[in-house]
Amino acid sequence: MENKRGGKREGSGRKPKIEEDSLIAKMDNVMSLELVLDKLAENINGKETNAIKTWLSYRLGMPKQTIDNKNEIIVDSPIEITEAQFKQAIEAIKPK
Questions:
Q1: CA angle 31, 57, 29 (to 5 degrees)
Q2: Angle at Cα 51 formed by Cα 14 and Cα 61, nearest 5°?
Q3: Into how many domains does the chain fold?
C-alpha cells in the first residue's frame, strides 16, 4: 500500500526562487508598490484592507514573527516528600 503522507511528490516543497520572482514581476505589472501603499493609506481605517495586506505580504514578505515561549509553573502548595522518596527520585534520574 502506498503511503499518502509526506515524502517527495509533485508540487510539494518550496517553489523555486525564479517562480517567486516571476510572480513579483507580474504583481508589479498589475499595480505598483507606490500605488498599493497609497491605497493602504487611504483605507487604513476602512474594511477594504485584506486584499492590500495579501498583496503586500506576497510582494514584501511577512513581517518577522516572534513567539513568547515563557513558561511558568506555579505551585499553590509546597510539595512534601520523604527522604526515601527523594533518594528514589535521585536514583531514577542518575545516569547509569
A1: 20
A2: 35
A3: 1
